[in-house]
Amino acid sequence: MKKSVILGALTVAACAAGAAGAATLDDVKARGKLNCGTNTGLVGFAAPDANGDWQGFDVAVCRAVAAAVLGDSSAVEFVPTTGKTRFTALASGEIDMLVRNTTWTFSRDVDLKFTFVGVNYYDGQGFMVPKALGVSSAKELDGATVCIQTGTTTELNLADFFRVNNITYEPVPIETNEQAQQQYLAGACDVYTTDASGLAATRATFEDPTAHVVLPEIISKEPLGPLVRHGDDEWADIVRWTLNALIAAEEYGVTSANIDELAAAPTTNPEINRLLGTEGGLGEMLGLPADWAVKAIKAGGNYGELFEKYIGQNTPIGLARGLNAQWTDGGLMYAPPFR
Amino acid sequence: MTSYPDVSRETFRLRMLIFDTRYRSLTIQVVALIAFMLLVAWIVSNTVQNLADLGKPIDFGFLTGAAQYDINQTLIEYTNRDSHLRAAFVGLLNTLLVAALGCTLATVLGVIIGVLRLSRNWLVARLMTVYVELFRNVPVLLWIVFFMAILIETLPPPNAFRGENATASMLLGDSVALTNRGFYIPEPLFSRSLGDISVFGAFDISLDLIAFLAVLAAGLWASARIRARADRIQNQTGLRPTTWYLRLGVVAVPVLIVLVALGFHLGYPELKGFNFRGGIYMRNSLIALWLALSFYTAAFIAEIVRGGILAISKGQTEAAAALGLRPNRIMSLVILPQALRVIIPPLISQYLNLTKNSSLAIAVGYMDITGTLGGITMGQTGRELECVLLMMAFYLAISLVISTAMNWYDARVRLVER
Asked: Where is this protein chiefly located (chain B) (predicted)?
């Protein structure tokens, strides 16, 4: 009898210990590495380069957070995830944060228990078809075979779009972007649908990108952004404000070229001073060094620099800023005040 | 005088549980069982507690919500407004379809290859050895992906069939189209159809199919009776009456009458719009998965068949030959019936393996239960534990049904011993 009481107490104690998760920030610091979930390979957003180093617009957010927290933008362990595995990887703690062209939706935020910390790319779902097909609108796609990444919001948008327009289609569910590309190029599907940015990135890797067109219809809102688990608000704050620091840096004209100069001594602009830690104690409030934002911005540049470097007009992907311009330029990128 | 120790007077004391060898093993077993159950209880309560702390207590309510996604291959009516439960059911049927097709083809191939591997023809035997070693030594996932890649890259897309100077053409009198999206074959249609009946309001079954199967079964039963009669006459008189035309007649004539009465005709696939329309569409994912699973499992079945045949002593073959039987008849009448007793138990586990391996379907986008319930539903609702538990229950149930059926068959072919 006594023994079973002791065992019972042990069980309860073990449960309590298992349930109380340690703070993610401490875990990351203790590990010396940030585990960041990314795409399995989408050129421009997250893909390994010729040397095997991960490069891209989403990857840059991981690197900025690693630089802010650990002071080293290369202290990142990239974990490639598919549309299907990403949420399990994040919920189980395999990764500390997820930046994988993931759409911020109500049910993911509320029901799946994730915290979306912001938006790093405002996107919408589009369709790509071979030019030879002679299709000029998505509404002409009645009966077409559509390749689609399974486990994504695009899958649900697609079902809604075809139902609302009362036309039929044949879905071909596919796990990764590379498989979709293979099937699409072989003609096993007529159409490839995913976020318009993803289409542009995929098309850029084709032998003859001009033989394919992206149809004018954008059928959904896809705000893509980094996310973390519910329940660790301190960690969510760090990721959120690192992203905001990159966006604010562009707004204030802080670039990787002039940041050393601006961070050396307080400038005349108090916003810049607070951002770069030469004034106030914002870093301390986050539990990070005062120059956290400086390191984050130096990791790859400010938001605008990252955009131009990985997916902008001068890259093969060639995306215009559009909605992703600063609010001062008519876009939606708007960082809350650093105060 | 011999003295016996007085057993009855010995009283039971607690320390005997440990020091008395009669009780010790029992004590150890009881303690181990309690420890094991405590461990299980700890894991379960820990999981439930952690999920509750995460704000995701175990709840199967999500199954009634609208699935919102489309499934390409549906054996029953399904739209994206239907529930997750129905989507899971569609996936379950797809799993059963590929498992049934796979087990059938794997058995046919396996038996042929297993027998041929014992052939005295050097080339044939060696070729079969190469087949077996090649297929069973490469992971089945690679075979699935490989078959899919072959289908996609080598066959023409549907629009290659279009226009005046089309680069591809349909086979067998424009009735079959092999494209890189799958195979389109003619479908049976009935112009005087009996309609469908609804089963529990969940799905419809074609009455035409039921009528056809019922007549076919009746014909086969009659044919078996004729054969039994022929056996009896042969046993009595030593002369076997010629019955093949009678047996063919009782099967074929009623079936043909039913088909004509129902207005049977074939619907041919036609190129319309982006794809072929009409006919039965076997998607490339189904074909790749089916062929890969069958070819892979056939290699194992071939070895089982070979082992079963080799287990029958050579004396049986020689005795049968001495009776004047030809080699084909020796195999089908003497060797295989006895070998079946050795073959069937390991064959069951190959069927189970094939069924479970079909969960690799997602590699080629085949929407089986792992693709619907364990894939999209799980991703959209975030109910990992519930979905995985349900899938485990499904696979367990399917496997138990298969082994029960096969064990029943095994009991039937088993040698009756006295």
From this structure: membrane
